[in-house]
Write a structure and sequence with these properties.
Layout lengths: L25 H4 L5 H11 L3 H4 L12 H13 L5 H10 L1 H6 L7 H11 L4 H14 L7 E10 L7 E3 H25 L1 H4 L12 H14 L7 H28 L4 E3 L6 E4 L10 E12 L2 E8 L8 H12 L5 E4 L6 H9 L3 E4 L4 H7 L15 E3 L4 E3 L5 E11 L5 E9 L8 H4 L7 E4 L1 H14 L2 H24 L10 H21 L1
Parallel strand pairs: 1-7, 7-8
Antiparallel strand pairs: 1-5, 2-3, 4-5, 5-6, 9-10, 10-11, 11-12, 12-13
Helix pairs in contact: 2-4, 4-19, 5-7, 8-19, 9-11, 9-12, 11-12, 14-17
Length: 515
């Protein structure tokens, strides 16, 4: 061949319409170590009797629940969360086609199975998967790392209802009704004297309607200010229905501070949206998990933005799932409270739970800043005789105690100690700004539990768990949000959101088993 002559390229022949003597087997097309085979094996091994009981029987035959469970879980492993995309996958993706045995459930069937059939039974399926992992030595149920994250709800961020607004609007109606009643008593005292004295501490739509009727009847035929007439007419047409609306809203909001109109179970929370932690208020849920070796052992959904209220409830669901509590619990400062420490002590659990200012204390290395010298925690306390000594050497004896009830129902015992004479004290300006003698309040049980927590956190075991916690539990949330691109729920309502988190947890664990 002459030098410089270009060679002709040669391509392999292919024909999309080529017929095969025997149809190809999907099983042969899937590698032996592929994660889809692990999904097949695990779902085949677990007991799904509780799921089968969800089917009433009779009528047309249904798709098998094992097959439906497999394709949905594999969808979550493959970052496919939409029922329509799973429907497409069972027709086009060989992994889904193999799991489904070439059957093709539509998106309505897939979604009904996910939202209706899996309700109240998915947690049991999840527990069985975790126990399989425990049998293989991948996890143990003795030490758990607990943390939470906020996930945005499938809700319009502008359709909010605030608890304070409900109370404020109800109070406004109450005050205006009082003013109208007082006006009627002035204008028509004779007609109003037959009416029983009316109090407006508690009002409802029926009482408002009845009261406005009484006022209108008393003012009939009287010369009434046109503005009052206009207000009475507005009140008659609007206040009863507004109060009914406020009653419904108050029932929906419960002890929360807000809810979304498009998903009433979602609460408005501050979300961390970017790398600078700048965010905005969005409807969302607080997703709590327990982990071991970066595998999820328990999960739950809460409507409180604050983690501090969730720990006892979360550990109780752990106990319900596995019939035992873990031996060691590790959590960050968001869970450090008297109630949580008391729960751990009552249940004889080793708790490595930080509290606020723990790291600040360690940086100070026991040194007290001059401006902190007068704080109650730095005053000398005589535990035998139950009194404090102020910086000037004066006794501060207990004057009274009171019980404070927290949002969760937990009761705290607060003791108050007061100095006898702060007049002419040279340190008074630095010691306290209030009038009279200094009064300090102390929660002795919280202080005792905090000291106990500090000792555990500074022990060799505590140091080991504190360093392990971020790598164990926070990595799970990072993987789900970043690698699996799951930052917003697709379903609405707490029960359905709980199903989504359960599917995510199972998918995450199976992926960890495969790796």
């Amino acid at each position: 061949m002459k030098k410089g002559v270009k060679k002709k390229p040669v391509f392999k022949d292919y024909d999309p319409y080529q017929l095969s003597l025997l149809p190809p087997s999907l099983n042969e097309l899937i590698p032996e170590n592929h994660v889809v085979r692990l999904v097949q094996r695990i779902i085949y091994e677990i007991d799904i009797d509780s799921l089968i009981l969800k089917y009433s029987g009779g009528g047309s035959s249904s798709f098998h629940p094992r097959m439906m469970l497999k394709i949905i879980i594999y969808g979550y492993i493959s970052n496919i969360y939409s029922s329509r995309k799973i429907e497409e996958a069972v027709s086009t993706n060989i992994h889904f086609m193999w799991l489904a045995g070439m059957q093709r459930p539509d998106h309505n069937t897939i979604n009904r199975f996910r939202t209706d059939r899996l309700k109240s039974v998915l947690k049991e399926v999840f527990g069985q998967v975790v126990l399989l992992m425990a049998d293989q030595g991948l996890v143990d149920l003795k030490t758990v790392y607990v943390d939470g994250t906020k996930i945005e709800a499938n809700a319009n961020k502008y359709t909010f209802v605030w608890g304070k607004a409900i109370k404020r609007n109800t109070e406004r109606v109450k005050e205006q009704l009082k003013d109208l009643w007082s006006y009627a008593e002035k204008i028509a005292s004779e007609e109003m004297k037959d009416n029983s004295p009316t109090t407006f501490e508690k009002i409802d739509s029926q009482k408002v309607e009845q009261t406005i009727g009484q006022i209108n009847q008393a003012l009939k035929g009287k010369e009434v200010d046109p503005k009052v007439k206009q207000k009475l007419n507005y009140a008659k047409n609007n206040w009863p229905k507004n109060l009914k609306k406020y009653e419904v809203q108050q029932k929906l909001i419960g002890d929360r501070n807000s809810y979304s109109k498009t998903d009433p179970d979602a609460t408005f929370m501050r979300m961390k949206d970017d790398h600078m932690l700048n965010g905005q208020l969005k409807a969302g849920y607080n997703w709590q998990i327990s982990t071991c070796n970066q595998c999820i052992l328990n999960y739950d959904i809460y409507q409180y933005a604050n983690d501090v209220y969730t720990l006892p409830l979360h550990l109780e669901t752990f106990k319900e799932l596995y019939k035992t509590l873990p031996e060691e619990v590790v959590a960050d400062a968001g869970y450090g409270s008297e109630e949580n420490y008391q729960y751990l002590e009552n249940n004889e659990l080793e708790g490595y739970v930080k509290y606020n200012y723990f790291h600040k204390e360690q940086k100070a290395k026991g040194k007290i800043k001059p401006e902190d010298a007068f704080k109650s925690e730095n005053l000398y306390y005589d535990s035998e005789n139950d009194f404090f000594i102020c910086p000037m050497g004066q006794k501060m004896e207990k004057v009274y105690e009171k019980t404070e009830k927290r949002k969760s129902g937990y009761e705290q015992q607060i003791s108050f100690y007061q100095a006898k004479n702060c007049d002419n004290c040279p340190l008074k300006g630095a010691c306290h700004k209030a009038k009279g003698n200094r009064l300090v309040q102390v929660n002795h049980n919280a202080k005792r539990l905090k000291d106990k927590a500090r000792q555990k956190l500074l022990s060799p075991e505590g140091i080991k768990h504190r360093s392990q916690r971020p790598a164990d539990v926070e990595a799970v949330f990072g993987n789900i949000k970043q690698n699996k691109s799951f930052r917003r729920f697709m379903l609405r309502g707490k029960e359905k959101v709980l199903i989504e988190t359960g599917l995510l947890a199972i998918a995450h664990n199976i992926r960890k088993m495969a790796s």
